[in-house]
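Folded chain entry —
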Amino acid sequence: MPPARNPNEPLALPQCRAVLREFMCHKNSTNYPKVYEFSDAELGAMSPVDLYRFFCFKACHKHDPGPTDKPMYARANSIEFWKKAMSYFMPNRLASWNYLANPPCGNPTKSKEVNDLIKAVKKKETRKQGRKSKADRAIEPSDFVQTISILENTQDYNKRYRHPAMIKTQFHFIARGDDIAHMKKENIEQSAEHPWTLTAKLRWSKNVSEERDCPKQIVLGANDPKHCVLVAWRWRGWRRGAVWQGSCFWSGGRAEGRGWRYRW
């Protein structure tokens, strides 16, 4: 019988295992198989110095770089991901590294050596002395309007109505695409405090783990139809009496129907 799956298992678990394996191969100068399972004893032998030297080698190709060395091979965000990836496998992952214990113990990823290294790499990046960022530039208002205009001028139903509605909703809530793709109309309600507005909840955000993490957010219209999420939600309602993409009949102040991914 296979072992029970951890409900809090990260989606990027394969990448996390790859990072751990790379570190252990580097630390012990051993080429471990990809399916190798490291024991708690092997993981417990890790120290902050081991992680520091590994991260320095990844960023600078040196185990102990000096003040003049530049992290040209890795960004601080990458180091933070590697740190988080290995922290998941630590036997004492909830405990910070205890320097006063004899011998020192805890989670080596939560140590001053690792945190100070990340701060130093960020400072180098700010001074343009680190690896160049590969992040895309921020979207400009003109980019947003152009995208909406192109989609709304097509004849395809999904491109003309569905996609602009999702984009405007994502823009309104400052959310990720995944958050909006899983948004359901049952989470849209009329505001009790301001009846002329709507409220909605984003239950699929990566930071939501409890009910209190997804409070109601107010939904307001805009003078510009290119940005107005209410216009997008009501776009097809005039002919159908119910709107496909986020809008619907109102019954007792509650939205009824299914979510973005479905069509009736």
In short: Strands lie at 188-190, 198-200, 217-219, 250-251, 254-255. Residues 236-264 have pLDDT under 50 and may be disordered. The two ends are 41 Å apart (CA to CA). Residues 61 and 73 are 8 Å apart (CA to CA).
